[in-house]
Design goal:
Structural class: alpha/beta
Number of strands: 4
Largest sheet: 4 strands, mixed
Distance between the termini: 21 Å
Strand order of the largest sheet: 1-2-4-3
CATH class: Alpha Beta
Number of domains: 1
CATH architecture: 3-Layer(aba) Sandwich
Helix content: 40-55%
Number of helices: 5
């Protein structure tokens, strides 16, 4: 798996989380690419307003490259692979570091745990998971909890 973007000290831990997600979801992420970046509160507010029509700051946004459902395997999207690098670009994830810091304090856990949770949450959205319906939210939360517990977060 290739993670592009500037996520500094968290890159190793996030790669580990995505590796555990690969096992839990029974997928193959070896030829997958994701863009993951920290942005300012102003930038995430602008993106949230522009793409979701929600006029407020949020913690994480995902911009999927594929129209994938949780039950579809990535191998279905082989035609979408970039032939130059042989990678399947899943999409972009942006995280407000300031909101992550505030939420870590609010939930009384580390900033590392919060950033990793948000990265995983965004990643699951790229894979087609959502939490609009109660049942879908329960499924997504169960997967997130399993993955985070396997990496001791």
């Amino acid at each position: 798996m290739k993670i592009e973007g500037k996520i500094g000290l968290y890159k190793h831990k996030i790669k580990k989380i995505f590796s555990v997600a690969e096992k839990v979801l029974k997928e193959d992420f070896s030829n997958v690419c994701v863009s993951l970046n920290f942005v300012s509160d102003e930038e995430i507010h602008r993106l949230n307003k522009e793409f979701r029509n929600v006029d407020k700051v949020t913690d994480v946004l995902s911009f999927p490259n594929l129209n994938k459902t949780p039950n579809e395997k990535l191998k279905k999207f082989k035609k979408s692979y970039d032939f130059d690098e042989g990678l399947l670009f899943l999409g972009d994830i942006v995280i407000s570091k300031n909101v992550a810091k505030a939420q870590a304090k609010e939930y009384e856990h580390s900033i590392t745990r919060e950033v990793c949770f948000l990265a995983l949450h965004g990643f699951l959205h790229l894979l087609g998971f959502d939490h609009i319906k109660e049942e879908d939210e329960r499924i997504m939360n169960k997967i997130q909890d399993k993955i985070l517990s396997e990496v001791n977060l």
